[in-house]
């Protein structure tokens, strides 16, 4: 007789184990914040998920929700400037952010809590909010001899601007009064050197 074959369906249920750590959507976040941003300004939102289905809580290193000028919301991952006393006096701030699972996926999940980290580099954008200030302006008292040749040096003025980068660069020019035709002087826009201009 030919051999006979029978079939059966067997369902195998796997028991979930908390063996996955949270994964951030990116390892480095690089938001920009204006230097004059006020309290509670939104900086960025970090995102992480856990393949085990655990809930994820966010924080800074040492399980804190505040780090210097910044605070993080545990549930949402939203990072903001703190509520008061803001002083953004650096070009950038580096924050180490953690994501921790809660082991809710499985019965013994809390015995194996996992944590992962990401870096948030907050770049501070300079705002052009300072005027150039002339150094020793009160002591300027230039004199020119009558008949001095064209291009004769008269005085070198200097101004500084507390803004950073391009906003802190100073260019010089001579302001003409209304109805004034031409000027007997020129200024080098880069150096501040004033010279005669006949």
Fraction of residues in helix: under 10%
Order of helices and strands: EEEEEEEEEEEEEEEE
Please identify the structural class as seen in this structure: mainly beta
Radius of gyration: 33 Å
- Total DSSP E strands: 16
Given the structure, what is the number of helices? Answer: 0
Shape label: rod-shaped
Q: Mind summarizing the main beta sheet?
A: 5 strands, mixed
Terminal Cα separation, in Å? 124 Å
Superfamily at the CATH H level of the largest domain?
Answer: Cadherins
Strand content: 25-35%
Description:
There is one protein chain. The protein is an all-beta fold. The chain has two domains: 23-125, Cadherins (Immunoglobulin-like), CATH 2.60.40; 126-198, Immunoglobulin-like. It has no helices and 16 strands. The chain has strands at residues 23-24, 28-29, 32-34, 42-45, 48-49, 56-60, 66-67, 70-72, 78-81, 92-101, 115-125, 133-134, 153-156, 159-160, 185-187, 193-196. A hairpin with a 2-residue loop joins strand 7 (66-67) and strand 8 (70-72). One of its GO terms (biological process) is homophilic cell adhesion via plasma membrane adhesion molecules.
Lay out the secondary structure:
Layout: E1 23-24, E2 28-29, E3 32-34, E4 42-45, E5 48-49, E6 56-60, E7 66-67, E8 70-72, E9 78-81, E10 92-101, E11 115-125, E12 133-134, E13 153-156, E14 159-160, E15 185-187, E16 193-196
Parallel strand pairs: 2-11, 3-11
Antiparallel strand pairs: 1-5, 4-9, 6-10, 7-8, 8-9, 10-11, 12-14, 13-16, 15-16
Subcellular location: Membrane
Protein name: Cadherin domain-containing protein
Keywords: Calcium, Cell adhesion, Membrane, Repeat, Transmembrane, Transmembrane helix
């Amino acid at each position: 007789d030919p051999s006979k074959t029978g079939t059966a369906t067997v369902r195998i249920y796997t028991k979930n184990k908390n063996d996955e750590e949270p994964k951030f959507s990116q390892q480095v976040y690089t938001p920009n914040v204006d230097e004059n941003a006020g309290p509670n300004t939104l900086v960025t939102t970090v995102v992480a998920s856990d393949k085990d289905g655990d809930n994820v809580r966010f924080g800074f290193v040492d399980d804190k929700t505040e780090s210097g000028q910044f605070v993080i919301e545990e549930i949402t991952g939203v990072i903001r400037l703190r509520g008061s006393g803001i002083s953004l006096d650096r070009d950038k701030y580096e924050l180490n952010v953690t994501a921790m699972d809660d082991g809710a996926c499985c019965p013994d999940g809390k015995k194996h809590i996992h944590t992962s980290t990401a870096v948030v580099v907050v770049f501070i954008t300079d705002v052009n909010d300072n005027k150039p200030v002339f150094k020793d302006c009160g002591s300027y008292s230039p004199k020119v001899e009558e008949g001095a040749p064209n291009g004769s040096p008269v005085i070198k003025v200097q101004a500084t601007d507390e803004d950073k980068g391009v906003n802190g660069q100073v260019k010089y020019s001579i302001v003409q009064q209304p109805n004034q035709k031409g000027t007997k002087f020129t200024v080098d826009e880069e150096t501040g050197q004033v010279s005669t201009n006949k």
